[in-house]
């Protein structure tokens, strides 16, 4: 457990840090968007196609929040029509180990559930 062997102040600090992380990455879509951008920069419509089930308003909102938190950068190219691309920032790249571990855990969980309920 997080706090089993920790002192009360250390435990509160760890729980606060977890809450801070959850506040920034909360919601159904943010981690998926970051994971998609972790491979390469993408245009808005490409992201919308890859993140199944997300609507354009929600994608725009989530991208804006990720940009405000310094995890994603938006680049506008002066082409006709304008080209808007998004890419994960260097700071956003620090989430790679977290995303990797989530993917590992998710695969194990899916396997466990699929084989336990059969």
TrEMBL record:
PROSITE patterns in alphabetical order: HTH_HXLR
Domain HTH hxlR-type: 11-114
GO MF entry, a single one: DNA binding
A Pfam family hit: HxlR
Keywords: DNA-binding, Transcription, Transcription regulation
Highest taxon listed in the record's lineage: Bacteria
SUPFAM superfamilies: Winged helix' DNA-binding domain
PANTHER family attached to this UniProt entry: TRANSCRIPTIONAL REGULATOR, MARR FAMILY
Record-given protein name: Transcriptional regulator, HxlR family
